[in-house]
Amino acid sequence: MRCKSIPATTSASSLSPVLLALKENAIKKRRFCVYMKCLFGAVGMFFMVLEGELFISNTIQKNTLTSDALKTLISISTAILIVFIIVQYAYQKKIERFSNRSRNLRCCGGIIVEIVVCVVHPFPGSGRIPKPLQTISKQSAELTRDFVYLDVYLSLFMIFRFYLFGQVTSEWLSSQLYSNRTLAKHLAFLTKVRLNSTFMMKYLLFRYPFQFVSTILFLVLIVNSFAMQSCEAYTFPGSEMGSFLNALWLVIITFLTIGYGDFYPVSFCGRCVSAATGFLGIGITGFIFSVFVHHFEMNRDEKYLLKFSKDERLKYQRRVAASNVIKFYYMAAKHRDEKAKYLVWRERFWKAVHVMRRSTKKYGNYSDIDLIDIQQMIQNVEKRQNEILSVLGELGKSMKSDQNANTGDVFNSAM
Fold first, then answer.
1. What is the CA radius of gyration of the chain?
2. Is 324 buried (19+), middle (13-18) or exposed (0-12) by CB count in 10 A?
3. Percent helix, strand, coil in the chain (nearest 5)?
4. Are the C-beta atoms of residues 227 and 255 closer than 8 Å to each other?
5. Residue 96 falls inside a structural domain
6. Tens digit of pLDDT for each residue in 195-231?
7. In which domain, by residue range, is 163 found?
8. Does residue 213 lie in a domain region?
9. Quick one: which of 179, 170, 155, 160 has its CA closest to 70?
10. Phi and psi (nearest 5°) for 57?
11. What is the pTM of this model?
């Protein structure tokens, strides 16, 4: 954990590579700690879900040997998780010392919050609490009991460990995106971009919009369904909401703000989960629509192509209308002696005039420049540039010859 000592005779030129090597080594070790945090956090959540499902299915009972053994495994994984959190922040402090930065308050606040979030878990021998005040339906009146196991609230608090998966994703993306992290940090400082988890989330949303939204939606539905099932099954054992599929159906219809009424939460905890699911459904649904709209919006090149095609079509219509005006005027003048044909061609002439005026109005003040004209303009600019360069070259040669002549005259006068 201590920084490697650097000899006092080390020169300034060789000191910087040594510090960079030590910093990169600390970054790799911190990344390893983040991966281990996620691993042991996931292990603890797995044993928590396993113990809860076995209890809900009446396979085991609370405060038995099997239940306490699973909770012991959760406690062991939590203890290892806390150790890796402390080691990670120790390496983070070392990285900041290499970078000549000091964020003591932020570092202490971060480690305290992470430890508080991760330390809560169902522990062996966890007791009971009185049942919260709630409204009991007629169907659930027979399933009522006077207490609720504390494990349900401790298990729900473990859901906050999902932030570990966000940290792992951020670290993995940073290792894949930045071949030179120091250079990326300097570039971010110049462009005032913060390379943090928010930036990584924006990158995922920009690079993989549909995969990102689908993953968020899937996690919200699964986690809320587990929370709903745990709240209802722990409070009213044997109720219909003890089935995960029924809980998932209730969460989906609540998420979509439909609410058929065939299932509804009875416990106080389940109603809180249902309310949170409704708010998440409103926000995530709007977020999904905004992603779809942004994805199908035309970019700059597509808008330019559409505008160019429209301008070319209007230009063609105006040229056709102008040629028809000339053509019909000539035919009307040619058949001036034949009254019937003259009237027909005159009518066509005025229609062509009307079409030409309408197309000119749509065309607007568009300058009659196409790709060929643009290419010709570029060639003219290049030709003019070459002429200027040739003139400057001749002027430089003449100035050099005059300077040599003046130098010769001075030398002859000195002799």
1. 38
2. middle
3. 75, 0, 20
4. no
5. yes
6. 667 777 777 887 888 888 888 889 999 999 999 988 8
7. 18-131+145-186
8. yes
9. 155
10. -85, 10
11. 0.65
- Residue with the two structure tokens 């349900």: 152
Helix ranges, 296-338 (H):
300-334
Residue 408 C-alpha from the chain's centroid:
73
Contact 266, 232 (CB under 8 A): yes
Whether residue 31 is found in the same domain as residue 168: yes
Q: What is the pLDDT along the chain (415 residues), one digit of tens a residue?
A: 444 444 434 433 444 677 777 877 888 888 899 999 999 999 999 999 999 888 888 888 888 889 889 999 999 999 999 999 999 988 888 877 776 666 666 678 888 889 999 999 888 877 777 766 554 444 444 455 677 788 888 888 899 999 898 888 888 877 766 655 555 665 665 656 666 677 777 778 878 888 888 888 899 999 999 999 888 888 887 778 888 888 999 999 999 888 787 888 888 888 889 899 999 988 888 888 887 777 777 777 777 777 777 777 777 877 887 888 888 888 888 787 788 888 888 888 888 888 878 777 766 544 444 445 555 666 776 777 777 777 777 777 776 666 665 555 544 554 4
For every residue of 286-298, DSSP letters joined together read HHHHHHHHHHTS-
Contact 241, 250 (CB under 8 A): yes
Same structural domain for residues 282 and 305? no
Tokens of 67: 């239940």
**Do the beta carbons of residue 158 and residue 45 sit within 8 Å?**
yes
Q: What is the domain count for the chain?
A: 3
- With CA atoms as reference, report the closest residue to 96 among 203, 172, 105: 105
What is the DSSP-derived secondary structure letter of residue 140?
Answer: T
How long, in residues, is the chain? 415
Contact 255, 218 (CB under 8 A): no
